[in-house]
Structures are given as structure tokens and as C-alpha cells.
Amino acid sequence: MPRFKDDAIVLRVYEWSETSQVVVLLTANHGKVRGLAKGSKRQSPSLLQRFSGGIELLTLGQVIAHTKHTAELASITEWDQQAAYPHLRTDLQAQWLAMYAAELTAALLADLDTHTDVFDAMRRLLDALAGGNHQAALLVYQWLLLESCGYKPVLDRDTVHGGPLVMDTAYTFNPAAGGLTAARAAKDWRVRE
Q1: How far apart are CA 46 and CA 29, in angstroms?
Q2: How far apart are CA 94 and CA 77, in angstroms?
Q3: Which terminal residue of the chain, N or C, has fewer Cβ atoms less than 10 Å from its own Cβ?
Q4: How buried is 111 (Cβ within 10 angstroms: 0-12 exposed, 13-18 middle, 19+ buried)?
């Protein structure tokens, strides 16, 4: 994949040198992209114009990057910040939940695997964290992420026996089967009613 321009959300930022950063971006049309932004922290006028003064965690922007199949990191050549989500800097719970969502996303998605639905859901989550119901917004995001990545748990039938779930029965979550079951095994997780 050569040069591309795309909307992106910053999932991770690592300091690479005094003037450069390694970033992990969730892009709208190119999936998760890991890249090196050389000179992104410099304060020279030409680099300030190219990098909007640096790349910050949990911000939305437009990125221009070059990818090569022979390199692990893309070359991030430009970053134009579009939304800073200031509520994440004033509400500690919202910041923690957004950071958790970013880490979960970075862990579940493969590099350059496009998930437009996850990008849209992450934008909705970052916007929703400005409101009051943080837990519900995070739950909706997590469910969509699990579903999009193929890890959606089976909650409508017993994953070991194959039959329907019966009310007033104690169930456990079987991680190997990927869902609820009435059969209890040592590695199953207990589930509250």
C-alpha cells in the first residue's frame, strides 16, 4: 500500500526520540496503522504546519502516511488534528474508559485490517464520554468491537449442550466454547444472573 490520506484516532503514543514519536492509529479505511512520525515534536514552523504541534493520545485527526510491506512501521508524514476531546482531560473516569477502549482496540485488531464500523463506534464512544452514562457507552463499544473481530460470545444457547438457555438455571461462561453453558468445568467463569 503506498501513500494514503485517512481520518484516524490515536490509540497509543510512544516517545521515540526527542523529536519523534511512534504512534498506533485507528484509521477509517486502512485499519490499525503503526507508524513513525519523524519530527512530530519539533517546534519549527514547517513541522508545526505538518504535525499540528504533535500527535496526542485519544485525538481525532487526518493522517498522511506511507506504508511498505517490507517495513513494520508506516512513515507518518502529516497529521492534522480535527478533534481534541477536551472532556477526556477534565473527567478522569471518561479518560480511563477511553484509554481502556483504545488498549482493547489495539489488542484485538490486526495491522491494516479495515474495520470501518469500529472506527465509527470509537468516534461515537469518544463523543458519548462527554455525557453522563459512561458505562453504557463503553458497553456498546465493547460489544461492537467483539462482534466485528469475531469474538462475540454466544448468549442465546448452551454452547456445550447446544440446547436453549433456561431461566432460573446457573450458567458459567466457557471461554473455549465462547459462550454460556450449564455444564461446569474447572476453567469456566462464574456468571451472575
Answers
A1: 28
A2: 30
A3: C
A4: middle
Alpha-carbon distance 106 to 159, whole Å? 28
3-state secondary structure of 150: coil
C-alpha–C-alpha distance, residues 135 and 61, integer Å: 25
State whether the Cα torsion 29-32-36-41 is positive or negative: positive
Pairing mode, if any, of strands 31-37 and 74-83?
parallel
Rounded to whole angstroms, the Cα distance separating 193 from 191 reads: 6
pTM, to two decimals: 0.85
Amino acid letter, residue 113 = D
Q: How remote is the C-alpha of 161 from its chain's centroid?
A: 34
Q: For 31-84, how does the pLDDT look when each residue is reduced to its tens digit (9 = 90+)?
A: 999 999 988 877 776 656 678 767 999 999 999 999 888 888 999 999 999 999
pLDDT tens string 85-112: 999 999 999 999 999 999 999 999 999 8
CB of 25 within 8 A of CB of 9? yes
Grid coordinates belonging to 181? 453453558
The amino acid at residue 104 is L
Q: Are 55 and 21 in contact (CB under 8 A)?
A: yes
- Report helix, strand or coil for 78: strand
